[in-house]
Amino acid sequence: MAKSAKKSSKKASKKPVKKAAPKAAKKAPKKAAKKAAKKPQPKQAKRYGKRFLVIYHAPMDAMSQTANSSPEEMAEGMALWRAWAERCGEKLADLGAPLFNGKRLTPRGLATPSTKEVSGYSLLDAEDWEEVMDLLEGHPHISGWHPEATIEVHESMILPGM
Question: Is 36 domain-assigned?
Fold first, then answer.
C-alpha cells in the first residue's frame, strides 16, 4: 500500500503542473490581445485641405559642404529648420529628411544614378497654393544657404478608396 500511495502522490503532484503550464500558455496570448485592444490607438493628425510634397534640390557640392560643417554651423542651420517647423505647426505633416544616392529606374530594370540633385523632402498640409507659398516664405533651404538651392512643390492627388 505504501507503493501505491507514493505513485498516487507522484501523479497528483505532476497533474497540476502539467495542466497549469498549458493554461498559462493559452492565457498569455489572450491577455496580450486584450491589453493591446485596451490601449488607445494614436489619432491621425488633423488633415488640412490638400497635401503638398516639398522637394529640396541642391548641388552635390552643397551637400558635401554641409557634411563638413562645424558642429556650431550645423546647430545654427538646424535652429533655422526648427523655427520653420514651429511656424508651420500641424500643417507640417512630415518634416522629412535629407536624401542622397538617388537612383533612376527604367522599365527594363536598369538602375542608374539620379541626376536630379534631390537633397530632401517635406510634406505640408494646406488649403491651397497661396497658403503653401506663405508657409515656404523665408524657408531655410532657400534663404542663402546655397545660391543654387531650390524648392520644388507638387500637390498630391487624393485617390478614391485609398
Answer: no
**C-alpha cell at position 55:** 522637394
Number of domains in the chain: 1
Q: Would you say the pTM of this structure is higher than 0.85?
A: no
Angstrom distance (rounded) from CA 131 to CA 112: 36
Domain assignment present for residue 38? The answer is no
Contacts with 56 (C-beta within 8 Å, 6 or more apart), sequence order = 118, 119, 120, 121, 122, 141, 149, 150, 151
> What three-state secondary structure class fits 151?
strand
Q: H-type helices in 39-150, by residue range?
A: 60-67, 71-88, 129-136
Structural domain contains residue 72: yes
C-alpha cell recorded at residue 75? 546647430
For the cut 70, the answer to whether the pLDDT of residue 49 exceeds it is yes
Domain holding 142: CATH number? 3.30.70.1060
Q: Is 75 exposed, middle or buried (0-12, 13-18, 19+ CB in 10 A)?
A: exposed
Interval 119-150: pLDDT, tens: 999 999 999 999 999 999 999 999 988 999 99
Residue 2 binned pLDDT confidence (cut-offs 50, 70, 90):
low
Span 104-120, pLDDT tens digits: 999 999 999 999 999 99
